[in-house]
Structures are given as structure tokens and as C-alpha cells.
Amino acid sequence: CETCSKEEAKYRCPRCMKYSCSLLCVKKHKLALSCNGVRDKTAFVSVNEFTDLNLLSDYRFLEDVGRTADAAARHCLVHSPATKRLLYCLRNKARGCNIELKTLPVGFTKRRENSTTFNSVENKFYWHLKLIFPHCHAEYTLKGVPDDKTLADILKPYIDPVESDPVVCQRLKIYTASPQSDVRILMKIENRSRNSVRYNELDASRTLLDNLKGKVIIEYPTLFVVLKTLKSDMVVLGQDGSEPAENSDSESSSLSSVEEGEIRDSS
């Protein structure tokens, strides 16, 4: 027994693999090691030690995950009239602000993530927002961002040399060390085909709502923060001599592209 070192061991903990001789020693070892005694189904097993039992365990684990995900997708709240009314209200309010908001079917990653709400008392959107800093391979998710907040204020906690969080500032050093005039905020144009990806450049001095007007948004806005001084393959519409944004005929193909990406992500 690895707890009392007196008696012959009779039990082995499925979690930490410690040997015990009695129920008392089992309880002592759980208390001392903060062990719950439940086998870790995702613990690493080397190839040399991998057996048919491990394979069967992994297979059953994946089946359990699949059943849990399926049960969540079939939950009554997902298909309730209240949920459908909420989505209809969000799309309708966005349309009133000259924003074309598209929502994805149940089960898609962006649909599950989206926490955007509309406050009817304040007549204001509180957006779920994703910020991507490609030069540092960093990504941040913001929730409850008011639509009357300027993009400059939204970015301050991330790239402002004075107001940014020290940990975030260190990770985004290349941005905080660059002049603010070099920072560009881009948003992908959703109503284009996959072989013609273009971005709109947003105005940091204007509010989030003003920047989203006239745009197509799938679930929530995703903003790319890039630097002018660094070479980028992100083509900005109007700065490459290309034609204006395509009409709505290509929206279906673009939406299909996003949905395919979501399916791969979900898989």
C-alpha cells in the first residue's frame, strides 16, 4: 500500500494508479493528492503501451462525445419559438441599421459562439466580436461590445502602449511598438466568391455601428488588425484597382464557403 506502507495492496486507483489496501487508505490518498478516482479517458498513452483496450476506450469515448453533442443540438431550447424569435429580431434590427446579418444553422461553431444581443431599451447592439492579430498569430474574443464604441477605443486594451494589459502588450509587442498611424483594421467581405477574397478597411475613429453599415456579417464581426509596414497578402478593396464589391448573386457561394469551413471546424 502506497498510503500506509504496512498492508498488502488490494486496489489500484484508476486515476493516479496508486496502490491501496483498504477503503480508509483509498480515502486518505484521494484527500492527500486531490484525486477524484475517476479514470482520465484523455490521458496520453504511448504507442508502445497502446493496446486493444485503449483503442476500445477511445472509441467509446468518441461515441459518448457524439451522443452528447447530438443531444445538445436536439435540445428543445435550440428549436424553441423563443430562440427563433430572438434570431429574427436580431436580423430585423440589423437590417434597420443597414446591416445584413446572416445566421448559420444549429451545430455550426460560429452559431454556438455568438453572444450578440440587442437592447431594446437603449436601442443598441451589444456585439460578439473577434479580433485577429495575424502578425503575432493572436486572437481575442470580446463579448458585449456596444455598437457606439469607436474601434480605436476597442483596440486600446490591446495595442495602446499605455492602456494595454502588460501580458497582452508583450504578446502584441510588434503592434504596440509601431505608430498608431500604421495600424489598419480590415474586415473580410462576405459576398464574394472563394477565389476572390477581398477586405474592407474600417475607420478606427468611427463607431462600430458606423463601420458595419452596408456590410454583410455572418453571425458576428471578425476584425483583422494589420500593420501597413508589414507585407500582407490581404487585398483591400479599392486599393488594388479591382472592381467594386460584387452584387448579391455571389452571396450564396460565399455563404457556402463559410459553412464548409464551419463544418470542417466542427469536425
UniProtKB/TrEMBL annotation:
GO terms for cellular component: nucleus; pre-snoRNP complex. One of its GO terms (biological process) is maturation of LSU-rRNA from tricistronic rRNA transcript (SSU-rRNA, 5.8S rRNA, LSU-rRNA). Residues 239-267 are annotated as: Disordered. Interacts with FBL, SNU13, NOP58, NUFIP1, RUVBL1, RUVBL2 and TAF9. Interacts (via HIT-type zinc finger) with the RUVBL1/RUVBL2 complex in the presence of ADP. CDD domains: zf-HIT_BCD1. GO terms for molecular function: zinc ion binding. Residues 242-258 have a biased composition (Low complexity). This is Box C/D snoRNA protein 1. Belongs to the BCD1 family. Residues 1-35 form the HIT-type domain.
